[in-house]
Amino acid sequence: MSGFDSQRGFGVYVHWPYCARVCPYCDFNVYAAKARDTAPLLDAILNDLEGWRARTGERRADAIFLGGGTPSLMSGAQVANVIAKVGELWGLKPGAEITLEANPDDAARFADFGAAGVNRLSLGLQSLDDARLKFLGRTHDAAGALAALQEARSKFRSVSIDLIYALPNQTAADWRNELSRAVRLGADHLSLYELSIEPGAAFFQAVKRKNWSPLEDERAADLYEITQELADAAGYPAYEISNHARAPEHQSAHNRIYWSSGDWAAVGPGAHGRLTTGSERLAIVAAEKPGEYLRQVAANGLGWASVDALDPLAQARERVSMGLRVIEGFAASDITELGLSLDAARLTDFAAAGLLTDVKGRIALTRSGRLMADRIAAEISP
Ligand code: SF4
């Protein structure tokens, strides 16, 4: 272990925890926006960034990601402040990716975000069907989503859209039709997620009360196959389990830092970060509730609520689970250098089942293997 490896990348994640309305499928750390003064939160985020800078030492940032929550509820000036602060503290590499996650309802502010320095917009379309958008509790309709996409394409060098599939009663023909329309919209990047019912989300209670039933696993797996085929044929090959880009330069550089086990400073309520210094790699979580976060930053100059040192084996397991997400997989030598021996018998079994390939020590999942990435990662790195 030799400290931070800049090849793995360094990014800055900013969590803006407010949303116009909390979606019933969401289990993120989010709060209804209401009418509130967000100036104290912005100040805390800027102070937290300074605290992180004191810990990381000098590095240049490959990417900034404003996520949430709904950071498109921020003003252009707030976004500009965050970007300027990161530039001042660390400096940005030339061409650094600066992403903001946006709700289509906030299209009127896209020009301001572009002027603030955002160059990649990730737009939460979720569906092109009004009834499904309503089911998902979204505040926009399909027409609004398409108008927002056009606006985004004129303002940012790269635009990603998110869609959710495997909704209750969604047929293969429904999804084929919706995705066929989506790939013709001219986005640079597609994030295509299967609906999952998370314990912290309102949908979990709805399913428990038997208001509706989730799609069966087998049908959801069929929709995943359709997703891969159709996106591939339309020129959006998958580069990760749920992510597709029309060219390598449109892949998410920030998410690549996660998948390569790089480092990222993470500010804002409940943000998770990683910091490697010397022989230590820390998993850091900021105070979750906005009020606690403000108090934490005021008291310590950092929002950190929990800090865990990852031992080499935990780091190796994280490299496996992250590395298996991307199509090129990971180098086995990257794991053994941390002292973990991969389970050779399980590797052979998964390869024989057509779920994994091992080419000259580079281990990657096949398309069907990616459907069960978590299980495979756990079994090969005991
Ligand atoms: S899905 Fe997105 S917009 Fe909806 S509550 Fe979660 S973070 Fe907010």
Describe the protein.
With 382 residues, the protein is α/β, with parallel strands linked by helices. The protein folds into two domains: 6-257, TIM Barrel; 313-380, Arc Repressor Mutant, subunit A (Orthogonal Bundle). 39% of the residues lie in helices and 24% in strands. The chain has helices at 39-56, 76-89, 110-116, 130-135, 142-155, 172-182, 202-208, 217-233, 253-259, 290-300, 312-323, 332-336, 344-352, 367-370, 373-380, and strands at 10-16, 18-19, 31-32, 61-68, 92-102, 120-126, 158-165, 189-194, 238-240, 243-245, 263-267, 272-277, 280-286, 304-309, 330-331, 356-359, 362-365. It has a nine-stranded mixed β-sheet with strand order 9-10-8-7-6-5-4-1-11, with helices on both faces. It has a three-stranded antiparallel β-sheet with strand order 12-13-14. Strand 5, helix 3 and strand 6 form a beta-alpha-beta unit. The longest helix has 18 residues, at 39-56. The protein is globular, with a radius of gyration of 21 Å. The two termini are 20 Å apart. The protein binds iron/sulfur cluster.
